[in-house]
């Protein structure tokens, strides 16, 4: 079993809690995503998906409820998603409007958010989070 270690950024939300950010590469752009163990699946900002994916479907069903949004979703395929050295090809993705989340991060002096890494990826690769070392570890078979 191969271990992939990915650095995390721990941010303090004005003394009101902590979030973990992870750098991702999607559509050949380095972006940031929130690591959310409570999200059932990973999602991306719908404007990012609209910009890069030609074939999108709209779903009124909430298939990607997170703490951030429960609105209608877009569905499409991301050709290549990288989280550190973990590479996911033809990732079936869900798009939500994350603009208000991104704006909040920017107002607090943090980078904008383009996605949320959720339980689907974390579970598939038996992810472990080390808060002390600020590292996310994936275990790939």
Provide structural commentary.
With 141 residues, the protein is of the alpha+beta class. It has a single domain (2-140), classed as Acid Proteases (Cathepsin D, subunit A, domain 1), CATH 2.40.70. The chain is 16% helix and 48% strand. The longest helix has 9 residues, at 99-107. The radius of gyration is 14 Å and the shape is globular. The protein starts with a strand and ends with a strand.
Short description:
The protein is α+β, with helices and mostly antiparallel strands. It has helices at 46-52, 99-107, 119-124, and strands at 2-12, 18-26, 29-35, 43-45, 57-59, 73-83, 86-96, 115-117, 128-130, 135-140. The protein contains three helices and ten strands.
Keywords:
16% helix, 141 residues, Cathepsin D, subunit A, domain 1, 6-stranded mixed beta barrel, 48% strand, 3 helices, alpha+beta
How much β-strand is present in the residues?
A: over 45%
CATH superfamily: Acid Proteases
What is the N-to-C order of secondary-structure elements (H for helix, E for strand)?
A: EEEEHEEEHEHEE
Question: How are the strands of the biggest sheet laid out side by side?
Answer: 2-3-8-4-7-6
Main sheet characteristics? 6 strands, mixed, barrel
The CATH topology, please?
Cathepsin D, subunit A, domain 1
How would you sum up the global shape? globular
Low-confidence sequence ranges: 62-69
CATH architecture label name: Beta Barrel
Work out the count of structural domains.
Answer: 1
Number of helices: 3
| Helix content bin | 10-25%
**CATH class bucket:** Mainly Beta
Ends distance: 5 Å
Q: Pairing-aware structural class of the strands and helices?
A: alpha+beta
